[in-house]
Amino acid sequence: MTTRLKRAGLAGLYLLALPAGTTVAAETDAAPVRVAQAFDFNVPDGAVEVYVDQYGQRVYLDGRGRVVGVDRPRRGFQGRRDRFRDRRDAIIDAPPPPGVTVEGRVDVAPGRDFGRVPDRRRPATIDPYDDPGFGPDDGYTEPRYEDRGPVEASPLPAPGGADGTDTVREAGLPQDGADRGLPAAGSDGPAQDTLGSEPLSGDDGQTIEESNPAPAVASPGNQNDRTQVAALQILLDRAGMSPGVIDGRMGGNVNKAVAAYREKFGKTLQTGDAQVLAEDLDATGGPPIIEYEITNEDVAGPYVASIPSDYGEKAKLPEMSFERVSERLAERFHMDESYLTSINPGADFSRAGTKIKVANVGSNVSGEVAKIIADKGREQVRAYAADGTLIAAYPATIGSTDTPSPSGTVQVNRIAFNPNYTYNPKVNFKQGSNDKVLTIPPGPNGPVGTVWIALSKPTYGIHGTPEPSKIGKTNSHGCVRLTNWDAMELAKLVKPGVTVEFTE
Which of 264, 378, 414, 463 is catalytic? Predict the structure, then answer.
């Protein structure tokens, strides 16, 4: 007896009637397909017909043609696999069988990803005596869970406002005038007076005094007009002449970016003329501030409750992630976090769908860098092409009086993206009471941020930072420190062998 394909009540489910010994043929000219008889066990109550769909599942129907059950046969390899998966989380309180070796931590249940081989390779390290150097596509992931130790975490804030209401709130337009006095974001720095290649400064770090500062430039509008100053900073950022964080404030970082702009383009930027700046903005990407809607991915993180200052505690974290959504978005749009929150009063950054105002920065510059100038007198890094053309310029923190950066000429040895940080008190310095080698996991809030460009002089490099608002303003401990986004851009422009010249 031959029947034809029948469509059941469920959309997209093709079912085949199965009387005993039935041969099934499609409505096309394809060869008949013989299917097996249905089993007579596990039949749901009320079922009067059984069909087999294209996945081999038995579908039971009642007398009115309604689906009352679906049964997937568990036989052969599939059945053994399912039974093995069901037993994966079982805890057996008995010695292992003879010849069996038990591996892994006893307080952690095995995972349920059947057949998945975990990637136990470590991220690139910046230990100058151990790091082989890795590129951005090497696929290195976070450290093994066996090495992490206990981790304390706290949930993200509840959705909605402070009163607990579950509403989507939109930010207002950027406001002119001084900021609203919101507390500045940032994490505690490490202990003062530590030595070695440690890049972070303490909160009370020394203010940089440039020996060769760039000439001061006119402000667009008055000094308190932060909206116009931010527009100038965004214009410079688009041109590859980085002002560091976009915070709506004039200062040394803006001055040196304008000087670099003059060197690159051969003309003086009319910083005091708001109309000229508006025309330049229109020609390079449109309005300086645009609207952005916070996504589920932004809110999901990952995030950590807080970044400790002690290296022993840092090493216990799974990664040196951002602490807040506003911190993540500030870095993405090259902004000071406190300025981002000040131009979005009342915005709920922890809620997907919230619309906020952000800087309309440009894409990364392109080119091949042949030479880098680390200008210690101006606290600026400039990248040049082989013909001497300026490609990009970045404000930097380059050493200090107590722990100066190198002098003379060195080379780029290797580049590591999203590196971890190897703390070795016998090689670098001693931080607090930590007297053992520690591996601090990677992340934007790690000691060297998201990039490490190793130099040919051991323990020195050009790298990112967890505190972008301090770049060009407070001293470091010998290395060349940039914002994470500037370090990332530079890392994609250079390659091993590029000359790095330190000038006074």
Answer: 463
